[in-house]
Amino acid sequence: MPPDQEAASAPADAPVTVVLDPADSAACHHLVAGLHDLAAGRVVCHPTPGASATDLALDLLVALGKRFDQLEAERVQPHAHAWELARLWLAGEHTRHLLVLRAHRLDQHSWRRLLALPATCQFTLWLVATGPTCAPPSTPPSHRRGTSESPTNSSPHIGSPC
Q: Is 127 within a domain?
């Protein structure tokens, strides 16, 4: 399926939550970063600022504990299959929650690729948007959905500031 159609084919009830932190607080950043625990199925991704969607796939591999040069190690054409490899590793690591920090800085192509993942990988996607302009770029309304399940099975502030 072409990458641009992946998000369009995701079910409307795909588990995606946008968490807003307008103050861009260090407390929120540390709280989310501290949730990273591969054994518990929680992956926290720190996207490279200004990076492309392909670079985001590499950031996902790094968050999964893979080498930053994983594409070359897997003998994959440079960047041609980065998202496929990220999707395979997310599933292989039994990811239950993917948390992406500073999601408001990602371009629309990156958002489309991320929004396609929950339906194919069976996990909850948490997009943390920070700063005074923390609204996601043109996020389709069908993908804006809160959930009562948290990455740690407790009751954090969902859909609101950290």
A: yes
* C-alpha–C-alpha distance, residues 10 and 123, integer Å: 13
Residue 9 is assigned to a structural domain of this protein: yes
What is the tens place of the pLDDT at every residue in 99-149?
A: 999 999 999 999 999 999 998 899 999 999 987 655 555 544 344 344 334
Residue 30 lies in a domain: yes
Tell me how many domains the chain contains.
Answer: 1
> Given strand 97-100, what is the order of strands in its sheet?
16-21, 124-130, 97-100, 42-45
Q: How far apart are CA 43 and CA 113, in angstroms?
A: 17
Inside any domain, residue 57: no
Q: What is the pLDDT of residues 10-57, one digit of tens each?
A: 445 558 999 999 988 999 999 999 999 999 999 999 999 988 999 999
Residue 25 is part of which domain span?
3-52+95-143
Which of these, 108, 61, 101, 111, lies nearest to 81 by C-alpha position? Answer: 61
C-alpha to C-alpha distance for 100 and 125, rounded to whole angstroms: 8
